[in-house]
Amino acid sequence: MARILLGVCGGIAAYKAVELTRLAIAAGHSVRVVQTAAAERFVGRATFEGITGAPALVSEWERDPARGAFPGDPAPDHAPISHLELVGGADILAIAPASANTVAKLAAGIADNLLTSAALSLRAPLLLAPAMNERMWEHPATTANLRVLRDRGATVVEPETGALASRGEEGAGRLPEPPALLAAIESALASGRSDYAPRPLDGLRVLVTAGGTREPIDAVRFVGNRSSGRMGFALAEEAARRGAETVVVAANVDLARAEGIRYRDVVTAAELADATHAELAGADVLLMGAAVADFRPAAAEGGKIEKGGRNGLALELEPTEDVLSAVAQARRSDQTVVGFAAEHGTGALARARRKLERKRLDAIVLNDVSGEGIGFEAPDNAVTILTVEGEREVPPASKTEVAREILDAVESLRAEASGLRIAASGPGVR
Ligand code: CTP
Questions:
Q1: Could you identify which of 80, 261, 297, 319 might form a hypothetical disulfide with 85, taking C-beta atoms 3.0 to 4.6 angstroms apart as the criterion?
Q2: What confidence tier does 78 reach under pLDDT thresholds 50, 70, 90?
Q3: Which residue in 186, 194, 132 sits closest to 160, CA to CA?
Q4: Residue 158: which of 142, 174, 139 has the closest Cα?
C-alpha cells in the first residue's frame, strides 16, 4: 500500500485519471488528488472526492478539511500548509495527465498553484505522464523541458500513438490507459528512486582519474599496470548519481561509459598529468583513483625494438611527475583532494598515513592489494579510508558499495570544511 498524490492537469485525458484513481484504490493504495484549475473544467472535483473519500484540492489558498492527511491516516491537530503536508505524507507524486504547461512550469521551478508548489517541495519520486496534442508533444520546448525533468530524476511515462482528442487527428500524445499508468506508478515506487529531490552533491564538480597509464617502450610495447579503472568509474557514477557534474580522466579503461559523465581519454602519465591539471581549476573535488606510472622509459624507440642478436635488454626509466603531490601543493583551500594508495602487506596502514601527511591530502583510500580476489581487476574491493581525524575500514564489498562509502567520507569532509570556513570568516561576515 502506498500513499499516492495524484496531480491532474487540464486536458481531455483527465477523464482517465478518474479510472486511475479507482484502480489505485482497488489495488489497496491511499490516494489524494490535486487538480489544476484547468483540470477542474474537464472533471469536477466531486468525482475524485467520491472515489478517494478525501477532499480534492485545487488552490493553495483553500483550507484542506483533511489537513493534509491521506485516507486512513490520522489528521494532524493543527491546520498545516496544505502543499507541504500533502507532499510530506506522499510516497510518490504522479501527474497524469501532465499538460505541456505544467511540464514547462516544473522544468522552470515555477510554483504558482497547489500542484506546482507541491512538486517543488517534493522529496519523494515524481512520475509524469504527459498527454497533449502531437504538435505540442513534438515541440522542442516540450522535449527540452522533459529532458530537464528526466535529468532531475523524474520518471516520464511516454504517451502513446493513436487517435487524438481532436476529431480525425492521429499521432503521439495519447495518455496510456489507466492499468498501464498504475503499473508505471507501482514500478516507480518499487525502484525506490527518490532522486527528484535535491541531491547531496548538486552543484559540485567532481574530477576522477581512473585506470592505469601506459608508458611506451617502443611503437608496440609499453610498461603498464593491472588497474582496470573499475573503482574510478564506480566513483564517478556514484558522484553523478549524487548530483555532481562529473569528469573522468580515463587512462586505458575498457568499460562502458555512463550517460551524463564527461570522459577524457589519456594513455600516458604525462597525458594524464596534462588533462588533470587542465580540469582541476573547474573542480571542487579530486578523486585520484588512477594508477599512474612512477617511472617511464627514458627514451621510447620510434619503431619496434628487434630481438635479433640481443642477449638481454636494459630499460632505463626516468621518474614521471607525481600528479597528486603537484595538485595538492597548488590546491585552493575550497578543494577536496583524495588520493589512493595501493599497498602490500604489513605496515600498509602506517605507510598510507605517512602518504596522507606527506602529500597533504584530505583523505587517502588504502587499497591493500595483498588480498585474494579484491583490488586490481576484481569487481570487489576492501579499503580503509584515512583522514587526518581517523580511519574507517570498509569490509569487502562491490566497488559500487565502496564508492558510496568514499563519497560519504567526501561529503563529511566538505561539510566539516565549510563549517570551518564559516567559523573562520567570523560573525556576520559571509
Ligand atoms: N600518483 C600520481 N602520480 C604519480 C604516481 C601516483 O598522482 N606519478 C597518485 C595515484 O593516483 C594515487 C597516489 O598517488 O592516488 C598514490 O600512489 P602510489 O603509487 O601508491 O604512491 P606513491 O606516491 O607513488 O608512493 P610510493 O610508490 O613511494 O609508495
A1: 80
A2: confident
A3: 132
A4: 174
Phi first, then psi: give them for residue 52, nearest 5 degrees: -85, -25
CA-wise closest residue to 390 among 409, 407, 404, 367: 409
Select from 196, 150, 175, 165 the least CA-distant residue to 5.
196
Q: Has residue 198 been placed in a domain?
A: no
Give domain status of residue 398, yes or no: yes
292 CA from centroid of ligand 1 (Å): 7
Query: In the listed set 146, 162, 190, which residue is the last one of a domain according to the structure?
Result: 190
Residue 352's identity, in one-letter code, is A
In the Cβ-directed half-sphere of 132, how many Cα atoms lie within 13 Å?
21
Residue 357: strand, helix, or coil: helix
Q: Is 71 exposed, middle or buried (0-12, 13-18, 19+ CB in 10 A)?
A: middle
339 lines ligand 1 (CB under 6 A): yes
* Ligand 1 contact, 292 CB (< 6 A): yes
Q: Which atom of ligand 1 is nearest to the CA of 338?
A: 15
Nearest ligand 1 atom to the CA of 325 is 7
3-state class of 55 per DSSP?
Answer: coil
Q: Does 324 contact ligand 1 (Cβ within 6 A)?
A: yes
pLDDT tens by residue, 3-26: 999 999 999 999 999 999 999 999
**Does 226 lie in the same domain as 351?**
yes
Q: What CATH number does the domain containing 106 carry?
A: 3.40.50.1950
All three cell numbers of 277, joined, read: 591539471
What atom in ligand 1 is closest to the CA of residue 269? 8
Tens digits of per-residue pLDDT, 133-151? 999 999 999 999 999 998 8
Whether residues 328 and 355 fall in one domain: yes
Residue 163: strand pairing partners: 170
Tell me, what amino acid is at 147?
R
**Contact between residue 342 and residue 293 where contact means Cβ atoms under 8 Å apart:** no
Based on the fold, state whether residues 142 and 216 are members of the same structural domain: no
Give catalytic residues, as residue numbers.
Answer: 225
Alpha-carbon distance of 327 to 409, in angstroms, equals 20
Cβ neighbours, 10 Å, residue 49: 14
Q: What are the CB-based long-range contacts (under 8 Å, 24+) for 309-316?
A: 315/217, 315/223
Backbone φ/ψ region at 330: left (φ over 0), alpha (ψ -120 to 50), beta: alpha
- Would you call the peptide bond into 97 cis, given omega within 30 degrees of 0 as the criterion? yes
Alpha-carbon distance of 393 to 349, in angstroms, equals 11
| pTM for this model (two decimals) | 0.68
Question: Is the separation of the CB atoms in 61 and 55 below 8 Å?
Answer: no
